[in-house]
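Hi,

Apologies if this is the wrong queue. I'm a grad student, and the batch job for Reverse transcriptase zinc-binding domain-containing protein from Cannabis sativa produced an output file that my downstream script rejects. I'm not sure whether the problem is my script or the file. Here is the sequence I used:
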Amino acid sequence: MYQGPGLVAWEAICQPKSTGGLGFRNVSAWNKAAMGKYLWAIANKEDSLWLRWINSVYLHNGDWWDHIPPSQSSWYWISLMRLKEQFKIALNGNLVLQKYTVDYGYKLLNPVQEKVFWNKQIWGRLNTPKHSFVAWLAIQHRLKTRDRLCKMGIFADHGCLLCKEQPETSMHLFFECAVSRKCLQQVKEWLQWKPQSVSLSGLIRWLGRSKMSNFRKLVIAAPVASLIYHIWKMRNLSYWDDETQDDMRMCKELKAGVTQRVELFWPKKVSNVDKEWFMSLL
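Support response: The file is valid. Your script probably expects a header line. Output copied below for reference.
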């Protein structure tokens, strides 16, 4: 298994897809949230043998939230006190007691961030999953482009592997590069799509704000994600295999893959106008 640093921080990965993550569960935060049940039980002074023992040994009817554990306390009690401080920070001083659930505690310790503008396009239901994943990295500039490798001290040459003219950055690769821009233009013409922007973020924003039908948005999002994947694949082939892939051939493969995917996951309700538009792409 790969043991190096991740392309995206674990805290970000554990965010929902709508806020830029992958929707993974942060197990550490979840375990702490489960332990939070004991904190709330103590704060609410629930009646149980364990809580009576806690009060007799440690609290002595003192204020729970301000309690400082004695140095001779057990490691378990000290761990609970550390967790209590984390909850106090998360609650921001609002210690009003309410019904506690593990889900509530998890959201306190792992708060949801602001929504991202690209969620629906990157994770469209007609997208091929591996295409969506590469697009997810690309939209956040987390692919290992040559400019990033140079900063890490791994690489000295930062030239673009496709056009051989400009430094290879994420912005350049998608779609300032002459080669990738040519591929993008072919996809635009195929889709009968005429946005003014040529940057990846600009295209995604345009698609999100467009007044076209949801079906068309989903269909267009699929080849955009596929194009990002194929450009990255083309770039890697150029480096590892010293192979230059023909852009016409690549776009032909892209079109075939996208149309098959759309036909396989065809939505239940599609207007006749949208059906005719899609049939014109075949």
